[in-house]
Amino acid sequence: MDKKQRVLIVDADHSLGLALSKELAEAGHSVTTHARKSEPGIDIVGNDIPNELLKWDSAYGPFERIVFGLQDGAEVAETPEDIGKIQHDLARTLGEIKASVQMLSRRDDGQVWVLLQEDSMQYYLPVAAQPMRSRALVGAIKSLAKEVFCFGVKLNALHVQPLAEQLDAALWKDARTNLKAFAIKFRPQKSIDVAKFLRALIELKGIPLAGMVLPVGIGYPENNV
Q1: Are 43 and 33 contacting, i.e. CB atoms less than 8 angstroms apart?
Q2: Helix, strand, or coil here: 120?
Q3: What is the pTM of this model?
Q4: Residue 206: Cβ-neighbour burial (10 angstroms; 0-12, 13-18, 19+)
Q5: CATH number of the domain within which 135 lies
Q6: What is the domain range of residue 161?
Q7: How far apart are CA 128 and CA 148, in angstroms?
Q8: Which residue among 4, 47, 57, 163 sits deepest, i.e. has the most Cβ atoms within 10 Å of its Cβ?
Q9: What total number of domains does the chain contain?
C-alpha cells in the first residue's frame, strides 16, 4: 500500500459494501459509508448525493476513491409506472456517478468503481436481478470513462455474481445441479473475499484500467454483459 486512501462507499448497506468498509478500515484506509436509510454504523444517510457530495468531501475527505455498492431489490417492468421508476432510479444513479467523477477530476489518480449484480443466475436462484439497470450503466460507464480519463480519473465496474450471503445455504444447495452450467465445482463467493479483491484494486496507484467491466465470480458464461 503506497499510502492511506480516503474512500467513500455509496450504498454501503449491502453485505459487500459492509465487508469492503471493514476490509479497508482494517488495512488502514479512511472509510466513509453512505446509505439511503438509517443503518447502524453508517456515517451518512441521504438521497441527494450530487448536491451533498462536496460537503461530504470537505467533512470526510478529500476522497481519492468512490465506490457505488450493490443495490437490493429486483426490477419489475410490468406497467408504465414500473418502467418510469426504473428510468428515474437510473437517471439518479447516472447523476451520482457524473458528480463523483467531476469531483475527483480535481485531483490525480482518482478511482470510481460501480458494483453491478450479475443476473444470469436469476433462472435458478431468487436473487434480485436488475438487468436493465446493469446494462444501461455498463454503456454509460464505458462512454463516460473516455471523457474523464484525461482528467486523471479511472472509472470502472465490477460485475459481481450472487454472493454467498445473499441466499440461505439451503437455496444454494438446492440450485447446485443447475449451476453446473457455470462451473463443475461452482461455489458462491463470500463478500469478504470479493472485498479483498476490490481493496487490492483500490490500493493500486496508476491502475491500468479505465472503462472496463470486470467479471467477478466462478465459471462465468461468455459475453455475460
Answers
A1: yes
A2: coil
A3: 0.93
A4: exposed
A5: 3.40.50.720
A6: 6-216
A7: 31
A8: 163
A9: 1
